Amino acid sequence: MKLLILAGLACLTVDIATAQVLGTTISSEGNWDLRKSDAGSCVLTPKTPSRVQVTRGRISVTGMPKNSVFNYQYRVDDGDASTPVLPSEAMQAEGRITIEGDAFNDTVEAHRFRFRILDRWHEAISEDIDLAGLSALYKRLEETCK
After folding, report:
1. CA–CA separation, 127 and 51 (whole Å)
2. What's this model's pTM, rounded to 2 decimal places?
3. Nearest one of 84, 72, 73 to 119, comparing CA atoms
4. Which of 136, 84, 75, 80 lies closest to 107 in space, CA to CA?
5. Which run of H or of E encompasses 6?
C-alpha cells in the first residue's frame, strides 16, 4: 500500500518545467511567450511555470506520466465545466491532454482557462491560467511559424 501511495506522489511531482518546450522567445504579450525552436516549430507558453502549451489548433496539458490520467475537465472563463472526459489511448501514451476544435477556438479568445486532471490514483492536478495576451500571440504564431 505504501508503495502505491509513493508511486502516486511521484507522478504528481513531475517537474512542471519539463512540460515547457525549449526554444528562443521571439515575442511576448500579456502573460504569454511565443517560442520558436531551431527546427522552426513554435509554441505558446505561459510566462509562469505551467503544464499548458498552445500550438497551431491545439491546447496541450503536458508533463504527466504516461498512462496516468483517469479523466479530465476544463472550464473556459466563467462558463460551466466540461463533463469529465476520458483521455484517448494516444493521449495516455503521450502523457498529455489535448483540446482541439471549437473548445480550442473558444479558449484562444477567452480570458481564463482552468483544468482539473484526476490521475489513476485519484489525486487531482489543477491549474488556473490567465489568458491575457494569448489571442494576439496566437495570431502571430499563425503568421510566423511552420
Report:
1. 8
2. 0.82
3. 72
4. 75
5. helix 2-12
Give the three cell numbers for residue 37: 525552436
Residue closest to 131 by CA, chosen among 74, 79, 55, 77: 77
Q: In angstroms, rounded to a whole number, what is the distance separating the alpha carbons of residues 28 and 3?
A: 43
pLDDT attached to residue 12: 42
Residue 126 C-alpha cell reads as 489543477
Alpha carbons 55 and 62: distance in angstroms, whole number: 12
Q: How confident is the model over 30-54, as a mean pLDDT?
A: 93
Q: Give, as one character, the DSSP assignment of residue 85.
A: B
Retrieve residue 1's grid coordinates: 500500500
Q: Angle at CA 28, nearest 5°, toward 110 and 99?
A: 40
Q: Is the pLDDT of residue 115 over 90?
A: yes
Q: What is the pLDDT of residue 145?
A: 85
- Do the beta carbons of residue 114 and residue 125 sit within 8 Å? no
Give exposure, 23-34, as e/b (b: 16+ Cβ within 10 Å): beeebebebbbb
Alpha carbon distance 43, 55 (integer Å): 5
Segment 123-127 shows an average pLDDT of 94
